[in-house]
Amino acid sequence: MTTHAKFDLRGMAEYLEAIQQAGLDIDAAAQRALMKGGAVLEAEMDHLVPVESGDLKKAIKIDGPHQDGNFSFVEVGVVNADREVAIYGNVQEYGSPSKHIKAQPYIRPAIDGRKAAVKRAIRESLKAEGFVD
Amino acid sequence: MANIFQITSTALGTITPAVTFAMDDLIGTGTLPDTYITYFLVDGVGVEHADNAESARVYRVQVNIMNKDGLASLPDVDTAMLAAGFAKGSERELQKDSTTSHYGLAKDYFYLT
User: If exposure means fewest CB atoms within 10 Å of the residue's CB, which of A9, A121, B17, B65 is most exposed?
Assistant: First the structure.
């Protein structure tokens, strides 16, 4: 069970192709843009996560950017955490009904609530590098 | 207009055969039933705005189906929720409870108002 979000630039293929044809370094720019989008999600998860020892909050990170061929992505959330923190993170996100532990979701509300802001951050990053809408 | 909690509760109340359900937590003095359901609101997000006012909102509700006999045969929550106007989201297995021996399946549903 994962406790993180993964996002990429699928759906923008035509636009990215046009940019590439213009001779701009799209891979590097796309990865910087993804990091900007990831930072928006990370900040919201940090804001929402319940804090007891603080270990779960510390485990919320941006992992990436990664590239697989033409496919760039980042992962945001509880990434590469140790087993104890990962289990605790899952219980906080989804709850444990039989143990009467109420969920305190911090991943899904961040994704649902900040989706538009993530897209905006990605778009602004690309625009700042000279790409046009 | 009914709120999201009433809508969810009404939907779960239509499951046949009836199954015990509660919001957030099933608190009782006795042992937990072999099969039961809990639900809670994950979030509600405004998705459309017009004239400086919100015109549409999407609620995400998590429904947990708990069962001592595993997850192969569970109450038909999907039919009840879809009939009430929800759309299906992701689902995931919860860690088996070593004390009560309940298995758990958490299902997300979305409701647009």
Answer: B17
